[in-house]
Design goal:
Blueprint: E1 3-9, H1 13-24, E2 32-38, H2 45-55, E3 59-63, H3 70-79, E4 86-91, E5 94-95, H4 100-108, E6 120-126, E7 139-140, E8 147-151, H5 152-158, H6 171-181, E9 186-195, H7 199-203, H8 206-227, H9 234-239
Parallel strand pairs: 1-2, 1-4, 2-3, 6-9
Antiparallel strand pairs: 4-8, 5-9, 6-8, 7-9
Length: 242
């Protein structure tokens, strides 16, 4: 079964280069396919991806006509995977360890001691200056959607990501709640990855930052309207006790 990796790219070409380099080095059981979705970048990302595709046939490229939401692109990428069993989804501001895919895949299936079947298994983010060393793997019920392995059976039970969330923010919290309500487990394991958090916001133009802020506010409002609370609050924690 082919190993599918989906990476969303919105500007930050330097980060995308580092991310793609780490994706190429992933150890996978079979064929590797990297689907890079360029989300209307304006910094030469699309041209660079095309040049990489000519050198590496494992890379597939999609480009959007205008900026699309993270939820929309996640759904689009998964539809393009064809007959998939699981897919690794990452942001372009990440750098992964070579064993990331196989470790997440192994943890997702009931083959490790005290491990059950999980619909989503994620790594845990580290800032660029932090070490990526780890020893005994531990898990927690707090998934990190900057780098996550999604099982197809879970996606079919929970449904698509909510494309009503504009741009980015809160679509991941929404999916975690929906998974819980469907009885689908989501865990984070202590395998680290480098994460340049907020890279687009930090390096974008004033207009890009305004667009991102507007999406944050709209999505925060949408999340509250759906659940009556905000992520990171006691009310949010209670959603997972119901």
């Amino acid at each position: 079964m082919r190993a599918n990796v989906i990476v969303l790219c919105r500007n930050n070409l330097n980060m995308t280069r580092k991310c793609l380099r780490s994706l190429r080095e992933l150890r996978v059981p079979d064929e590797l396919r990297i689907l890079a979705i360029d989300n209307a970048s304006t910094d030469g990302t699309a041209a660079w991806l095309r040049s990489e595709q000519t050198r590496d046939k494992r890379i597939w490229i999609m480009s959007t006509n205008g900026v699309r939401s993270v939820a929309t692109l996640w759904n689009l990428g998964l539809r393009c995977c064809g007959d998939w069993e699981d897919a690794l989804i990452v942001n372009n501001d990440t750098v992964l360890l070579p064993e990331t895919y196989t470790t997440l895949q192994a943890w997702a299936k009931p083959v490790w001691k005290d491990s059950g079947e999980h619909g989503i298994v994620t790594c845990v983010s580290r800032m660029p200056w932090e070490t990526l060393e780890y020893h005994e793997i531990q898990s927690s019920p707090h998934p990190d959607f900057s780098c996550f392995l999604l099982r197809r059976w879970a996606y079919e039970i929970v449904g698509e990501f909510d494309e009503g969330f504009e741009g980015a923010y809160f679509e991941d919290n929404d999916y975690h709640v929906r998974m819980h309500r469907k009885g689908v487990s989501a865990v984070s394991i202590s395998v680290p990855f480098t994460h340049h958090g907020g890279g687009t916001m930090k390096t974008g133009s004033i207009f890009e930052r305004m667009r991102i802020s507007k999406c944050f506010e709209a999505n925060q409002k949408r999340f509250f309207e759906k659940y009556g609370c905000y992520p990171g609050t006691k009310g949010y924690d209670r959603l997972f006790q119901q």
